[in-house]
Design brief:
- The complex is a heterodimer of chains A (397) and B (144).
- Chain A contains 15 helices and 10 strands.
- In chain A, the strands form 4 sheets. Chain A has a 3-stranded antiparallel sheet with strand order 1-2-3. In chain A, strands 6-7-8 form a 3-stranded antiparallel sheet.
- Chain B is 38% helix and 15% strand.
- Chain B has a single domain, classed as 3-Layer(aba) Sandwich (Rossmann fold), CATH 3.40.50.
- Chain B has 144 residues and is α/β, with parallel strands linked by helices.
- The chains are: A alpha+beta (397), B alpha/beta (144).
- Chains A and B meet through helix 1 and helix 5 of A and strand 1 and helix 2 of B.
Chain lengths: 397, 144
C-alpha cells in the first residue's frame, strides 16, 4: 500500500489553535509525524525589550490567555529577585490563590476539551458550565475573567475582603462536589475508558528522555512538579499531594488532571484560611541593576521557565520564556507514531497544547545571519564549555 | 422583496453558521468564544452553530493579531467561504493589533488590513456578553 502524507492544521476542527502536523500514513496507521510551529509566533520577546518592566507585565500576561497568571508571576518573581525586593507574605498568598484558581479553570477547560475530542459532548457542556464558577471567583477577586492582572511588581494590586473569601469558599465547595462526579465519570464510565485507555502511550523512560513536563509527565509516573521540587511562593508551607498515574496513556492524563483539581481545592481553602495580615506591595525602583535571573513556575500545563537579564535601565536586556507545551511537543510525535489516525486529535489534546505560549522561539545567529537547530550533543558541549569558562568543570566529577 | 428572497433572508438570519479561526491570538478570546457557545451564555439559541469547515460557514470569527505566517491561510479560508460572507474581528488585537501592534511578526494594524471586516468586537479579552451583542447587532443590520 502506498504511503499518504496528510496535513493536519493550521485550521482544523480538532485544533483550537494554529499548528500543523504532517502525518505520514500507512493505511490508517501513522508511520511518522512532524510538527510545524510558528503560526502563532508574534515576536513577544523582542517586543519585551522595548517596553518597561511594568509594561511588560501586561504584555507577558498575553503570552497565553489560559495560563496568564503563571507567566506574569514567573516574570514578576524574576524582576523582584533582580531588584532584591522582599515581597510581603500576604501578596504571596494572594498569588498562590489566583494561581490555583487558574489551575482549576485550566484543568476544567481541558477536561471539557478532552471530552469533546472523545465525542462526549455532554461532559464538555457540563465542565464548561461549572468552569463559570471559577471564572466568577476570578472576576470577583481581580475584576477580570481571563487576564487577571492581579500581580504588580513588588506585590499584588488587590486585597481580599472577608466577603470575597466566603463567596470563593462557597463556589469551591460546589465545585468540589461536581469534581467528585467528574472523577467518577472519568474513571468508571466505560465509554471514556474504552476511548482513552491505551491511546497515546508514553512510557516512563520515554517521558524522561523527551523531557515531558506537567500532567503529561505525571501520567507516565514521573514525579515531577515544581511546586514540590523547588517550592516558590508559599508552596513549601502548604499541604498537598503530588498526583501521578502509571497507566502512561490518555486515560492516565484525564485521571491526573481530575485528581489535581481536588488538590487545588485543598490548596485554595488552605490559603484562604491562612492569609497573613500585612501590606500588599513593597516599592521597587523602576531601574534595576544588571543581573541575570531564572525562575520556574508550575503552570497548569507543566514547568514554565522565565529568564531575565537586566542592564541598569528600566527595560529588560533579554527576556526568554520556555513554555510547558514546547517541552511536551517532543513527546507528541512519539505518542502519535504507530497510533491510529482517529486518535490524533485526542492525543494532541491530551498534552493540553497551548500554541500561543509555545510559538515564540527560534535559534538565530546574528553574526552569520543563519537560523540553526542545535542537537542534544551540541547543546551539551556548549553548556560544558560555557561553564568551564566560568571556572566550573564538570568533567572532573 | 419576493417571497423567495424573504425566505432566504429569514433562513440566513435564523441560522448563521460560524467558523472560528485563531490567527495568532493569546487564547483569551478563543476560550471566551467557546464559552459563549456553552450553557451559561448559550449563543446556540440564536441558531449559531460552530462549523469545522469554511465551506459551510457564513461568518468567519477571527481572534487575535494576524501573524505573517497566517496571512495566506487566512485569505485562503476566506476565499473558500460561500457568498454572502461576513467577518467578525474579535478582541483588541483583531480590531487594531492590540498589545502586539509593532511586533516584527505581526501585520501592523489589525485584521482589516488583510480581510474586509463586517463588525469589530473590542475588549481584551472580549466578554461572552460582548460577543453575543456583536453577533446580534450584525444580524439585525442584515435585516434592514
Amino acid at each position: 500500500m502506498s504511503k499518504i502524507t496528510i496535513p493536519l492544521g493550521p485550521q482544523h476542527p480538532a485544533l483550537k489553535e494554529p499548528e500543523n502536523f504532517m502525518l505520514v500514513l500507512e493505511g490508517e496507521q501513522i508511520e511518522n509525524a512532524t510538527i510545524n510551529l510558528g503560526y502563532n509566533h508574534r515576536g513577544m520577546e523582542k517586543a519585551a525589550e522595548e517596553r518597561t518592566f511594568i509594561q511588560n507585565m501586561y504584555l507577558l500576561e498575553r503570552v497565553c490567555g489560559i495560563c496568564s497568571h503563571s507567566h506574569t508571576t514567573c516574570y514578576v518573581t524574576n524582576v523582584e529577585e533582580a531588584a532584591k525586593a522582599e515581597v510581603p507574605e500576604r501578596a504571596l498568598a494572594i498569588r498562590v490563590l489566583v494561581g490555583e484558581l487558574e489551575r482549576v479553570h485550566s484543568h476544567l477547560l481541558w477536561l471539557g476539551v478532552a471530552a469533546y475530542e472523545i465525542g462526549f459532548e455532554t461532559l464538555f457542556m457540563y465542565t464548561w458550565r461549572d468552569r463559570e464558577q471559577v471564572l466568577d471567583c476570578l472576576e470577583l477577586l481581580s475584576g477580570n475573567r481571563v487576564h487577571y492582572s492581579i500581580n504588580t511588581i513588588g506585590g499584588v494590586r488587590r486585597d481580599i475582603t472577608p466577603e470575597q473569601k466566603n463567596e470563593v469558599l462557597k463556589r469551591i465547595n460546589f465545585l468540589e462536589e461536581r469534581t467528585k462526579y467528574y472523577i467518577k465519570v472519568a474513571t468508571e464510565e466505560p465509554t471514556v475508558r474504552a476511548r482513552a485507555a491505551n491511546v497515546g502511550k508514553l512510557p516512563y523512560e520515554v517521558a524522561l528522555e523527551r523531557g515531558a513536563v506537567g500532567p503529561t509527565a505525571r501520567a507516565s509516573g514521573v514525579k515531577r512538579d515544581v511546586r514540590k521540587d523547588a517550592p516558590y511562593l508559599l508552596y513549601d508551607k502548604l499541604d498537598f499531594n503530588l498526583i501521578t498515574h502509571d497507566s502512561c496513556d490518555v486515560f492516565g492524563r484525564v485521571v491526573v488532571r481530575a485528581l489535581e483539581l481536588m488538590e487545588s481545592y485543598k490548596l485554595i481553602k488552605q490559603v484562604l484560611n491562612y492569609l497573613p495580615e500585612g501590606p500588599l506591595t513593597v516599592k521597587v525602583p523602576p531601574r534595576i541593576a544588571p543581573a541575570e535571573v531564572v525562575n520556574l513556575y508550575e503552570a497548569p500545563r507543566g514547568e514554565d521557565i522565565h529568564y531575565l537579564k537586566t542592564n541598569g535601565t528600566d527595560k529588560p536586556e533579554r527576556l526568554k520564556v520556555r513554555a510547558p507545551t514546547l517541552a511536551n511537543l517532543q513527546s507528541v510525535t512519539y505518542m502519535l507514531e504507530g497510533g491510529w489516525l482517529a486518535d490524533v486529535p485526542l492525543v494532541i489534546a491530551a498534552i493540553d497544547p497551548c500554541m500561543s505560549c509555545t510559538d515564540r522561539a527560534m535559534v538565530y545567529d546574528r553574526k552569520t545571519d543563519k537560523t540553526q537547530v542545535y542537537d542534544w550533543e551540541d547543546l551539551r558541549r556548549l553548556g560544558i564549555e560555557a561553564y568551564k569558562r566560568k571556572g566550573v568543570d564538570f568533567s572532573k566529577f | 422583496m419576493k417571497t423567495i428572497d424573504k425566505l432566504i433572508l429569514w433562513s440566513r438570519l435564523k441560522s448563521p453558521w460560524i467558523l472560528h479561526f485563531n490567527s495568532g491570538a493569546c487564547n483569551g478570546c478563543d476560550i471566551e468564544i467557546v464559552d459563549a457557545l456553552t450553557p451559561k451564555y448559550d449563543i446556540e439559541r440564536f441558531g449559531i452553530v460552530l462549523k469545522s469547515t469554511p465551506r459551510h460557514a457564513d461568518v468567519l470569527v477571527v481572534s487575535g493579531p494576524v501573524t505573517l505566517q497566517q496571512v495566506p491561510r487566512l485569505k485562503r479560508i476566506y476565499e473558500q467561504m460561500p457568498e454572502p460572507k461576513f467577518v467578525l474581528a474579535i478582541g483588541a488585537c483583531g480590531c487594531s493589533g492590540g498589545v502586539f501592534n509593532g511586533c516584527y511578526s505581526v501585520v501592523p494594524g489589525g485584521l482589516d488590513q488583510v480581510l474586509p471586516v463586517s463588525a469589530y468586537i473590542p475588549g481584551c479579552p472580549v466578554r461572552p456578553e460582548a460577543i453575543i451583542d456583536g453577533v446580534v447587532k450584525l444580524l439585525s443590520s442584515l435585516e434592514n
